[in-house]
Amino acid sequence: xxxxxxxxxxxxxxxxxxxxxxxxxxxxxxxxxxxxxxxxxxxxxxxxxxxxxxxxxxxxxxxxxxxxxxxxxxxxxxxxxxxxxxxxxxxxxxxxxxxxxxxxxxxxxxxxxxxxxxxxxxxxxxxxxxxxxxxxxxxxxxxxxxxxxxxxxxxxxxxxxxxxxxxxxxxxxxxxxxxxxxxxxxxxxxxxxxxxxxxxxxxxxxxxxxxxxxxxxxxxxxxxxxxxxxxxxxxxxxxxxxxxxxxxxxxxxxxxxxxxxxxxxxxxxxxxxxxxxxxxxxxxxxxxxxxxxxxxxxxxxxxxxxxxxxxxxxxxxxxxxxxxxxxxxxxxxxxxxxxxxxxxxxxxxxxxxxxxxxxxxxxxxxxxxxxxxxxxxxxxxxxxxxxxxxxxxxxxxxxxxxxxxxxxxxxxxxxxxxxxxxxxxxxxxxxxxxxxxxxxxxxxxxxxxxx
Length: 451
Hints:
Pfam families: Radical_SAM, SPASM. The chain has helices spanning 3-25, 27-30, 34-41, 48-59, 63-72, 76-105, 141-154, 170-179, 196-205, 218-225, 229-242, 258-261, 264-273, 298-312, 366-370, 373-381, 400-408, 421-450, and strands spanning 112-115, 158-161, 184-189, 208-213, 248-253, 277-282, 318-321, 339-342, 348-349, 356-357, 411-412. By secondary structure, the chain is α/β, with parallel strands linked by helices.
């Protein structure tokens, strides 16, 4: 980063802090100014469409304004830390350094890094690819610390824990928050291990946000996760809400639960519980024991696509649809383009759902992993389709991933039951063929609407 850019970033960081203090004095009047700050700080094109919708909603004092008031009701120090780490560090300073590194090193540099602190989990959920990893793998505290130290030098200040169940490593998670107070940490979690003590730790470190997995109402959720889990999740959400702590929901939509998790009743339930965001994931048939029948058919995926977008204009919660929102970020975000995944054995995967790699973080640097053959293949291949409703090289373009894996010599990183890439993508071919016609129709309609 050159001197001019450094000065600009320092000045802008100061301006944001001053604006936040100003808004604290009169949030109702000054909340509309939040989006102008976000627009200046965010990477170019980063969820631009959604930011426009949020800006309009705030101006009209609609659902986005209501969400903004909920954010302002959070613990003041937690809120301040979030804005500093997420907007200034991850999206302003970080994106500038990422871009500079990309140009210098000719490789992708991620906005976020997903880490599996452990493969251990206190549950065994139906259809969970992480269950294939067994329960004996862990990234050491020092390894996680080193990954983040390396990442910050490249411009990455956003870290997301997956698993396994990351909360099995509560103490180490908090230690990492302490060691890197300039980073924001989010964790996908089943929520059952969140208790009063951990809420107090979240208040102390200020830079940790849970995304609690919920697969629908009690019957659907406990049918996949086990009896009593739904009630434990409700208890965790109540604790977080009582302590004015931010949290969201993560949900995987399947052919079995898609109606539940996109219903108005489900939205209202999680909003009332205090969730500020919901992250939707399409079921992926990853692993030799995966259940392809859980993949939604074209009509079911279309219903999810339409319902999520409809609720964006009426419900005070920020929603992200991992598979159907590719238009906002120009296609597939894996391979280090916006994120990568490091499993509990240290393997650096291009995607949390695609477990093939040439690099292990115990053997190479993070930068070298980003320069590895499979990551370079992603960089050269993205976007994998001009139709942004068909972004993935596995799910919607199953001819792409086997070609990349074979040409780069990448190997399966599943230590329990390695899956041949052709076996994986063959499960996706019927789905891809069925979805193409629907996706092309929806995408054409979307382009016409934009005109």
